[in-house]
Task: structure prediction
Amino acid sequence: MTDLLAALILGLIEGITEFLPISSTGHLLIAQHWLGHRSDLFNISIQAGAILAVVVIYWKRLWELATGFTRRENLDYLLKLGAAFGVTAVLGIAVKKAGFQLPDQVLPIAWALVLGGAWMILAEHFAAKRAAALGERSAITWTVAILVGVAQVIAGVFPGTSRSGATIFIALLAGTTSRAAATEFAFLVGIPTMFAATAYELVDVLGTPAAANEDWNALGVAFVASAVTAFIAVKWLLRYIQSHRFTAFAIYRFVFGAALLLLMPSGS
Result:
């Protein structure tokens, strides 16, 4: 298999899995066992490609927030997006400075997929009970914003957790009972988060041997593939959650995680 084809496949995997609550990082790390290891810059950059799809899909909402920030509700929403991003940035830099590295073994990812599936089912149950008790609530509180910021870092530290899944369900459990509102906030806060992470990695590697060794053509192919497939995946997901719960994704996580635990050697 050529390197460009491998990069294309990784870009497709990233685009499909970034916003579905099944963990894009976990899928990428597993795929790289067969398709070859990639740099942190590659992995984060193609995640930014997927985030670009969200910018396109939510451009009207983003334009409304950017041009109408003098309106109280828009300013409040922007401040809460900023708070969530700020929490993620501070904790994320602390984790990076502590020398954290993504695991290169399948076992912890497989367990994260299985346990994350169980957590999703429980979270869905309690979120539904909360929604029945409180009614439809689309407001984002400061508590939701802060917890979403923390959830992003947790998902980054434990591949297999799913950033989208963690942030959406934290929002649902913390009081935003509307799935659409929780999903929108989780997706929008991902825009500055992933673009900042990509910029951080670029600054870190530019002018170093790592930059010279990076296959920029392969990265470009994966970036475009990720953006296009993420656009399709997000459009589908936004329609899906209007009439469905997330149970199907939890089942997928169980099956995929269990298959990895059964089929992969424990040390691989």
Remarks:
- The first helix runs from residue 3 to 17.
- Residues 92 and 127 are 27 Å apart (CA to CA).
